[in-house]
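Figure S7 source data.
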Amino acid sequence: MVDVALSPVEAGDGPDRPLHVAIIMDGNGRWARSRGKPRTFGHREGAKAVRRTIEAASDFGVTHLTLFGFSSENWTRPATEIGDIMALVRFYLRRELAELHRSNVRFQVIGDRTQLSDDIVELIENAERTTRNNTGLAVTLALSYGGRAEIAGAARRIAEEAAAGRLKPEAVDETALAARLSTHGCPDPDLVIRTSGEQRLSNFLLWQVAYAEFVFLDVLWPDFDRTHLASALDEFGRRERRYGRALS
Ligand code: IPE
Ligand code: IPE
Ligand code: MG
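C-alpha cells for the predicted IPE complex:
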C-alpha cells in the first residue's frame, strides 16, 4: 500500500499545482486475452480501474484527471466490440454518477458526440449538469475523441468567425485557438501516462501535451492501481521541466 501522506504531491519538492494527469488507458484486450477471455471482459475490468484511479487521484492531490476511453479511430473496431464498450459507458454513467457527485468530482466528456447514441449523450449531459458546480477533482473522459479532429474543428470555427467578420486574422494566435478546443478553461496536462507498454499518443490531446512529461508503464490498464499512479507521480517529481529555457 502507498502511504498517502508520503505521496509525491505532498512531499515538498513536488510539481506546481494544479496537477493535471492525463491517462491513455490501454491494454484491456491483451489483459483479457492472457486469461483466455473475450476482449469485453478486459473492458469491464478496465472500468473498475477507472474507479480506483479517480479515487487515488483525489487522494494524491491531483486537480485534473483526463482519461482516454475511446478514440475517433476506435470506431474502426468490430461492431460487437464497439457495442460492448458503449454498453459499458452507459452502465458506468448510470452507476457511477451518484458516487462521483458524492465525491465532489466535476465530470465532463470531450469528443465527437454526434457519433454517440442519443441516450449516451443524454447521460453525459445529465452527469455534466449534475456535477457542474462541484469543486473537487475535475474528471474529463475523452470519448470518440481525436486530437487532430479537435484542432481541425477549432480551425473551422476560427474560419467561420473570420468570414463573418467577428474575428480579425491578426487576432488568431495560440490563445485564440486554445479557446476553441474542447479543453478550453482546463490547464494543459502536466503528466501523460500510457499503460500497456505502448509508447505513442494515438491522437490524444495533441495540442495540449506540448510540454507534458510522459511516463510509459508496462502494466495493462485493468491491473492499474494507486501504486502505479503513485510511481508515475514520483517519476514526474524527478523530471526537470524547462519549457525551452537554458539549464540553470
Ligand atoms: C484500451 O484497451 C481500451 C480502448 C481502446 C477502448 P484496448 O482495447 O486497446 O486493449 P489492447 O491494446 O488491444 O490490449
Ligand atoms: C488508444 O488506444 C485509445 C484509448 C486508450 C482509448 P488504442 O489501443 O486505440 O491505440 P493504438 O491503436 O494501439 O495506437
Ligand atoms: Mg490498445
